[in-house]
Amino acid sequence: MSWATVVAARLRGLLEHKRLNRELDEEVRFHLEMQIEDNLKAGMNPAEARYAAMRSFGALERMKETYRERRACPLVETTAQDLRYGMRTFRKSPGFTMTVVTVLALAIGVNTAMFSVLNAVLFRPLPYRSPENLAMLWTEDPTQKFHEGRSALWDVDQWRSQSQSFADMATFDSVSTTLTGTGGVEQIAGASISPNLLPLLGVQPVLGHTFSTEEAEKGRRLVLISHRFWQARFGGSYDTLGATLVLNGVPCQIIGVLPADFQIARIDADVWEQHTRGRGVRGAETWFVVGRLRPAVTFDQAQAEMSAVARRLNDQLPAAERNRVISVVPLSLYIVGPQSRLALWLLGGTVFCVFLIAAANVTSLSLARSVARTREMAVRAALGASAGRIVRQLLIEGVLLAGVSGVIGTLLSSVGVRLIRAFGPGNLRRLNETSLDLWVLGWALAISLLAGVLVGLLPAVATLRRDPRPAGDQDGRSAPGGVVTSRIRRALVVADFALAIVLLAGAGLLVRSWWYVNSIDPGFRPERVLVMELSAPPTFSIPAQRADLYRRVLEKIRAVPGVENAGIIGDLFISNSREQVITVEQDDGTVSARLQFVGDEASADFFKAIGTPLLRGRFFSTWDGPDAPPVAIINDAMARCSWPRQNPVGRRFKLGLRDSDHPWYTVVGVVGDMRRQGLERDPFPQMFVSLAQSPPPRNVDLFVRTSSDDPMAMAGSLQAAVRHVEKNAPTYGVAPLEQQLGTYLVQRRFQTSLVTGFSIVALLMAAVGIYGLIQYSIATRTQEIGIRMAVGAQAGEIFRMMLGEGVKLSLTGWMLGLLGALWVGQAGSSLLFGVTPTDPLTFIGVSLLLIAVAVAASCLPARRAMKIAPIVALRRD
Amino acid sequence: MNDDRIDKADVLQGTLILLVLRTLEALGPLHGYGIARRIEQISKDVLQLNQGTLYPALLRMEQEGWISSKWGASEKNRRARFYSITAAGRRRLTKETQDWRRMSSTIERFLGFDPRSLAEERG
Fold this sequence. Notes:
A: 4 domains; 6-stranded mixed beta barrel; 27 helices; B: alpha+beta; Arc Repressor Mutant, subunit A; 5 helices
């Protein structure tokens, strides 16, 4: 109560500052005049009366000071004074101010931008109800190194009924979908979900309603559309509900519009259908499973229960599949995987190091300035400023600088966020959600304050440790640096170099990995090749129809001018592979083995079109028709794996065990290994069968080798050729093969270029730091150098002395930094490719670079020291 | 001499509030000079009031709400600030008076007490 009224009165006092001062003056004057009058009445003469009145009143100014302090909040008032004073000193030294603000604003801007990425991708909760309770469930077989496998619907029913940990489980998958409109058929992104998925996630359509069980019973085809699709195709109209879309040739009714940016796990679709299935059938293992844990159930508990469920279910499976486990993974961990998380933390750490280096440099600069201001501080102390007041002044100057830098930095970071969203790796989930929110602004504020305290505190401490009074005797030109100040500055330069080498070594390792990845032969020649996806219309339900369609499309495309060759494969880039049992005929009978394996249908000219070499045997030919014995082409990895040191051509193998009902394939050719999972994944056994012999898939990849260096220029004429053959077969996803291969490298390129860029900035800053230190050291030691030269020191000795100072510091930083770099290399080793975390070439290279930079940065000022004329140096005092 | 004055001023600081409140209660609204004169008149040479210290004390008491002030005309028709005691100030005065009485009687008893009598009781 009482303190509140006091505070209120004081705040009022603060606001009415001037009027209250006037009133106090008036009151005091009145008091004194009354006293003088009384004294006169008592018989004193005027001078005596006045003197006596003043004496009985006591120290007038001190009283007023006490009065003012008690009236207002002295802290606020004097802080305002300090701020005004700080602004004045900054205006007087624009060079210093500009440098500090520029460096700090850049560092804060970059940090804030990077934090906004971390915030969006890692920290911000997923846009579902209680997202922390959501989990992905996978079917896995650790004995076969089979991870993150999808599941069959029947399995999911069993899991649901046998477990207590989960409130519910839902299934989903993306499905290839064609949309028939007035302009023909086109391919759109579709997904199939179980009806309980949206309630499980806690997502409501923004318009209309979600799937209901009664409607599912009636067998009507219903569909939800994405917000994006709604805006693009229906202009956001409310009449959209009830409209009909012809999907895969079947009319479906739109019942709702999902919220903007809705996606589940990594699936982002325009049309969402519910899936139906026959009862009692186990079904294919093609479904993603998401579950919601009951409240208060931990992931560990759920995992323990599901492991027990998996053991029970294993007993009902064929013997070969009894090693299955169910793995429970938090949804957020699946959406942004450990690799991306590590890369982001690495980048975050990198920019934070840059920030620290920037702050160290600025601190060093303001330390140097504080020495130059020793005289100013001495004058202030002599005028009665307490040590606390001077320290506070310096701290406030630091915070003021950092505050201005923070505001500019935040503005810069909003530009940075836009750049990251535009140029960042598109395959990094949630990156497009990056924005400046309150958390990001809070972070900007926090690091600005940190910078302010760092920048202000050390000079303040150094000022305290230095007795300012003797400096008052000097003219301030050659103020002695002060042992504390120069020790701190040396330590800062060492820290600069230590951080710089950590960053440089990290960047070096990433650059080496990048070179290595890029030097890898993908096993095909992607130059001048255009890729497009092609869907057969739903009416082509008989395999022979599709085989005929693909053959005619290839013929037509080869006739287009500028086309050198063309081929078709089911799916070039492998997104999901798993172990299969293969039975192989060898010299001494058949052998069954389980291995990671993928089979695809390919056209006869596929390998020629894409440029994969034939190692043995022959390609497919026209004799390999539907009635001829089944043949296969295998890759080198399969040849090495199944027929080590033997010629596989002419030998037979089949899928499954020896008595399975799959056909025997005769190997007719062996082709080179293709890296079909991006350059960083090793090739594994693969087989290719002829499009003519096995039922070709509905969706295939079409490869066209052109004679043009810009294959995209031919996209139009090639698509027209396909339409000419079959107008209901949509082509989509047209891109140069090089670009498709490049998407696997986008994230690596992003992290490598950022870390490299930042480490160069760090190196430059470290160089500037050491340059400034030596320069300053020479400036304060001009007199000493003059004396040395006067008594016979050679210019070379002076040069070596100054150079030695710089090199010694950088070597100390280098040693400390190496330890840090080794640790960082170990922590981030999973991001490396083809190099070890202790790669000697990288470490030697960056060390030489760093030392060269340190020597160069020390040389420039040291050369100036050499040219000091002794007489000038001595005359200075 | 100098140390002596500081000691007296210290004593005064603690009791100044009591004196001011009592003065205002007894005499009604007064300006600062009037309060100072009144305190000096009553205490004569015992309490040497450093008049200047009165004003910060008045400010604090006003902030606490024990007194209120307003500008008015003095006896010689000059503008002056008049202070008067508030209800809260009266309560405070009662409490301060009690505290002071209890304190001074305790000290009085202590000073009038002969330690030897305690020793005899024990012996």
